[in-house]
Amino acid sequence: MPPTDTSLSGDDLPTFNEVLAAAGRLSGVADRTPVLTSATLDAAFGARLHFKAENLQRGAAFKFRGAYNALSRLTPAQRLRGVASYSSGNHAQAVALAAKLLGMPAVIVMPGDAPAVKVAATRAHGARIVFYDRYGEDRMAICQALADSQGMAVIPPFDHPDVIAGQGTAALELFEEAGVLDALFVPLGGGGLLSGTLLAAGARCPASKVYGVEPDAGNDGQQSLRAGHIVRIETPGTIADGAQTQQLGQRTFPIIQRSVADILTVSDAALVESMRLLLEHLEVAVEPTGCLGFAGAMSMRASLQGRRVGVILSGGNVDPVQFATLAANLPRTTRG
User: Fold this and answer.
1) Which residue out of 5, 18, 173, 220 is catalytically annotated?
2) 214 is catalytic
3) Could you confirm whether 88 is annotated as catalytic?
4) N or C, which end of the chain has less CB nearby within 10 Å?
């Protein structure tokens, strides 16, 4: 394993105790999403698969956990001024919804090519949207300028201790329901979900091997793990829009580097196939980014036989036209 990145000390990183505290704040607010199973998929893998269905979370993604946890910790003065953030869609919706629930104004910087379903949902929760060009403009700089001009707090999509702790509650619930898992596959963009999952796994199931999964075109996480430091890439071209990040965070990377079993990459074609299989056998609509974990598990299927395997389905905000095109070609079979 490469030497540890020391850009942040251990005192600056969230801990499992903060995941537990986040679980308390989210109780009765976030949905406790189901863990889905399929006898047919189990037979195909020769393993026992447990799918944590965060596509059924409020806002149709795990992002609500981290967003609400972070916003709920703001002071009354900060809540009055509001919150600013940036996101390709799921964190945007999560911040907008959390802000609405907490009575706060919100402004979100979103790419001009963000899926229409995500833009519509963000706007429906009352947030003001500012669009930018993801291939030519700096979303963080735009967001910070907006926040500075209005005195707003900035809640980034992944590199924030309260966001990381909130995301870790999904895996905490998975371990509580499914028990010991030999392997767990987690979608990887900026690393908020994966780092939070690793905190939960380290405390609740330390023997579990946790894998991050990112698109082939956006393998900055894999490159970073191999290099021993954060590697920044150009905005990747992939159907997994939630994983079109350019680098891991200063907080997420040290946690990932310390504890992850490995970081895998999968093709867009594998994501499409995963969408098909999940619709066919679990009867759930999962967006391409949300399928990263399952696609990663499929790539390691031969080594998972006889194992208890967890997969986090991170989001269900799929473009309906895109999904209908895929669904039209699915064979009609009995759910397993």
Assistant:
1) 220
2) yes
3) yes
4) N
